[in-house]
Design a protein that fits this description.
- By secondary structure, the chain is of the alpha+beta class.
- The model has no long low-confidence stretch (mean pLDDT 79).
């Protein structure tokens, strides 16, 4: 009797068993699920890198445009600012208080330069904040506008030209 039962019981192929298909589904979902996630992570990483590179390039371009005041021009502006601060205002000049806020120069290096002179002790011990607009034309620097402490506009017609004008030789 056992022989009949054994003969009638035929082993089913593995692909007809339920657990075989569960294993296949789990493996396939792991493969496709991971690769999709990996692609998404890689895409996000590439986007982040591209964005960072673009921001760096934009920053360098901006710095190149705004921070490349030619040395000769910057030297003349510093000298005129020093003359004005020491001579017209009567303050001690510090090169660390000098800052070019903005400038607009043409191809011949003529134009305007805005200076902020802000000593670390401005408002204390007589130190004064000074805003200047300097025009530059063919090596001649001239203070066109001056404001002290952000409140008092200076009447430049009352200030000696030796403090408001500077001519450099190129």
């Amino acid at each position: 009797m056992k022989d009949k039962a054994t003969k009638n019981k035929v082993k089913r192929p593995i692909y007809k068993r339920w657990w075989f298909w569960v294993i296949i589904v789990v493996i396939l979902s792991a493969i496709f699920g991971t690769s999709g996630e990996k692609d998404g992570i890689e895409d996000r990483a590439k986007d982040t890198i591209n964005s960072a590179e673009q921001q760096t390039e934009e920053k360098q371009e901006t710095e190149t445009k705004s921070d490349t005041l030619p040395t000769l021009i910057d030297g003349g502006c510093r000298a005129l600012t020093k003359n004005f601060v020491e001579g017209a205002i009567g303050e001690e000049y510090s090169m660390f208080a000098y800052n070019v806020e903005e400038f607009e120069l043409d191809e011949n290096e003529n134009g305007t330069i805005k200076i902020l002179y802000l000593p670390s002790n401005a408002g204390e011990e007589g130190a004064t904040k000074v805003n200047l607009t300097i025009s530059l034309k063919d090596g001649a620097y001239k203070i066109e506008y001056a404001m002290l402490s952000g409140l008092y506009e200076v009447d430049l017609t009352q200030v000696s030209k030796k403090y408001t004008e500077l001519i450099t030789s190129d």
